[in-house]
Amino acid sequence: xxxxxxxxxxxxxxxxxxxxxxxxxxxxxxxxxxxxxxxxxxxxxxxxxxxxxxxxxxxxxxxxxxxxxxxxxxxxxxxxxxxxxxxxxxxxxxxxxxxxxxxxxxxxxxxxxxxxxxxxxxxxxxxxxxxxxxxxxxxxxxx
Length: 143
Known about the structure:
The protein is α+β, with helices and mostly antiparallel strands. It folds into 2 domains: about 20-95, no CATH class; about 100-143, no CATH class. It has 6 helices and 6 strands; from the N terminus they run αβααβαββαβαβ. It has helices at about 10-20, 25-35, 45-60, 85-90, 105-110, 120-125, and strands at about 25, 80, 95, 100, 120, 135. The strands form 3 sheets. A two-stranded parallel ribbon has the order 1-2. A two-stranded antiparallel sheet has the order 3-4. It is flat. The model is unreliable at about 130-143 (pLDDT under 50). This is Glycyl radical enzyme, PFL2/glycerol dehydratase family. One of its GO terms (molecular function) is catalytic activity. It holds the Pfam family PFL-like. InterPro entries: PFL_dom.
C-alpha cells in the first residue's frame, strides 16, 4: 500500500479538532421534542421532512475555519448529538422506502457475495410479463 501523508490544511484541522473537548448537544433533541404533537399521525416520510425542515430553520449552523465541508449536527465543533426518546424508538435512519442498508461492519469483516437472481422460465415470464426477473429468490448470504 502506498504511503499517504496529511496535507498541511488537513493536519491543521486534525490538530484543531483533537485539541477541543467533546461535549453533548441537546439542541437537536429539544427542537424535535417541541414538534412531537404537530407531526403525530402524519406519514413517516412527511414527518421526517417536516422535522428536518424545522431543524434547518432553528438549529444554528456551525462553519469551521479552513473547512471544505460545512455544517454539523450541532452548533459547536466536536459535540455529540443527544437523541430524543422518539428517535431512539423509531426505525433506523438507514431504512427508507422499505429498503434497509446493509450491516456495514459485517460487509467489512466478512465480505459479501454478489446477488445471483434466478431468471424465470419463458412460461412463467409470459404469465407475469412485468416480473421477468425474480429478485426475491436471490441469495445474499455471506461466504
